[in-house]
UniProtKB/TrEMBL annotation:
Pfam families: Glyoxalase. InterPro entries: Glyas_Bleomycin-R_OHBP_Dase, Glyas_Fos-R_dOase_dom, VOC_core. This is Lactoylglutathione lyase. The lineage of its organism: Bacteria, Bacillati, Actinomycetota, Actinomycetes, Candidatus Nanopelagicales. It comes from the Bacteria. Residues 6-147 form the VOC domain. It comes from Candidatus Planktophila versatilis.
Length: 151
């Protein structure tokens, strides 16, 4: 029987690939593995969509896996931005060090978060850690998570 072998990537559909790369690469520091225009017919079949092409970038996540940014061309695009409590929504969480320094950098670059600053986690298995939900240029939530000191 087949089984899950590991994590490959998480995909995020974006409105403008270059604006999103400023957030994920310039801001968060994720390394661009490749950026390419894809238009293979298999994509239209597997996605069941009629579009011209997809501008795609794969960004390496330290420790393994990728974030895939997808900018569809030649098709109507609508925002899927949602609140964390809305079903069908989601978020990606990154382990970070020095969360306040990253937050300060992102705020100076003009990005916003759901809270005004990093928040101390006061209960549960991550008590003693810190968290921040940044919003990417399209409103997709990216959680920065700093582990508790004793983790």
């Amino acid at each position: 029987m087949g089984e899950i072998l590991g994590f490959f990537h998480g995909g995020i559909t974006v409105k403008d690939l270059q604006k999103s790369l400023k957030f994920y690469h310039d801001g968060l520091g994720l390394k661009v593995k490749f950026e390419k225009l894809l238009n293979g017919p298999y994509l239209r079949t597997v996605l069941d969509l009629k579009f011209d092409a997809i501008n795609v970038a794969f960004l390496e996540v330290p420790g393994g896996g990728f974030i895939e940014l997808l900018d569809y061309q030649g098709i109507e695009k609508l925002s899927a931005a949602s609140r964390p409590c809305d079903f069908g929504g989601g978020h990606i969480s990154f382990y970070v060090s020095k969360i306040d320094e990253i937050a300060e950098k992102m705020f100076k670059m003009g990005y916003i978060a759901r809270s005004e600053s990093c928040v101390d986690i006061t209960e549960g298995p991550n008590a003693g850690g810190r968290s921040l939900y940044l919003l990417d240029p399209d409103g997709y939530p990216i959680e920065l998570f700093m582990r508790p000191a004793d983790a």
